[in-house]
Amino acid sequence: MGTLTHQLAQVRLLLEAVEVQLHAIARSSVGLRLLDRIGWTRMLRLAMVGWWSVIVVASGTVFRPDLIHPTDLGSDTSNYIAAAERVAAGHDVYSLQPGDRPVPLDNPPDWTVPLLSPPTMAVGSNWTVAIPDGWRLYPMWAIGLGGTAAAGFLVAAFAPPLLLLVATQFWWGLGITAWSGNVNALIVPAMVVVWWGMRSRRVWAERLAGILTALAAGLKIGPLVVAVWLLAQRRRQAAIAMIATGLGLGVATLILVGPGSAFRWLDIARATAAVSSDLSLPRILERAGVPGSLAALAIPVD
Question: What does the mean pLDDT of the chain come to?
Fold first, then answer.
């Protein structure tokens, strides 16, 4: 940890030295003096805002135009809404009955269930059932698109320069995520709000950070890491809000889908670990040399 901190400090000093040199060079040119007055860091941020805009537009129009149709059968949005509809109808989350929204099951032996997410995802999406069927699939997809795009703009505008340079390495993947309708498109902006809320001294902002952390951890277990960090901050209002929201989501899930679905999801997670994507946590650990039996323990967090 000490070595990493030392390396980050060296990079920060290097960036400061580069900025000093840019100021010195700018004084020798009228045109560059104008840019120097604007500020090199500000110019970098403006360039990053423009670059992020290009990435978002290109991701949905050039590289993955299929993602702009959330109503397509098999899209993440369609699968989530289908699960919410099954919960509302009193049907099993992880199996289909006549009359349920179609979900592709043509992926054996990879998986033969209509949902790979925890049952809390179906419960968390249940509010969409109140929207007319023709429009039901758009709000959650649009919130993810707008939220992730806004998160990128906020990072470009306000993140420390070092963090900004690191973040740009992941922007193409984040651009695809924005259009995907996947739960990650909701978690990304939620985590940005959590970071802001924990920096704020306003009580309502701390509570909002706690609520969003609990919801994110309930929908995809990975953000539990953020929950542990939040508790370590000893911010009472945030911790109370997080625990209350987590308990509420857990109770609602048990009432609406039953405890059996939770155990069924653990079985599904284990069964599908072998076919996880190259970007999944178990696969990343395996490539790093972790034995497969140990890497599989990361399945619930993935």
Answer: 81
The first and second tokens of residue 244, run together, are 């209350």
Give the DSSP letter string of 22-43.
Answer: HHHHHTT-HHHHHHHHH-HHHH
Closest CA to 116 of 176, 178, 182: 182
Give the list of residues 6+ apart from residue 287 with CB closer than 8 angstroms, or none: none
- If you ran DSSP here, which 8-state letter would residue 299 be given? G
pLDDT band at 290 (very low <50, low <70, confident <90, very high): low
Contacts of 224 (CB under 8 A, 6+ apart): 217, 301
Region 173-199: mean pLDDT is 91
Contacts within 8 Å (CB) and 24+ apart, 205-209: 206/235, 206/237, 206/238, 206/241, 207/237, 207/238, 207/240, 207/241, 208/241, 209/238, 209/241, 209/242
How far is Cα 199 from Cα 210, in angstroms, rounded to an integer? Answer: 13
Residue 190 confidence (pLDDT): 94
Tokens matching residue 59: 């991701």
- Provide the pLDDT for residue 279: 44
Beta carbons of 191 and 174 less than 8 angstroms apart: no
Q: Quickly count: other Cβ atoms within 10 Å of residue 214's Cβ.
A: 25
- Whether residue 93 contacts residue 122, with contact meaning beta carbons closer than 8 Å, is answered with yes
SS3 107: strand
**When comparing pLDDT for 23 and 100, which is higher?**
100
Task: State the Cα–Cα distance between residues 254 and 162, nearest whole angstrom.
Answer: 44
**Alpha-carbon distance 269 to 62, whole Å?**
33
Q: What is the DSSP string of 228-269?
A: HHHHHTT-HHHHHHHHHHHHHHHHHHHHHH-HHHHHHHHHHH
For the chain, percent helix, then strand, then coil, each to nearest 5?
A: 75, 0, 25
Distance from CA of residue 27 to its chain's centroid? Answer: 44
pLDDT at 166 over 90: no
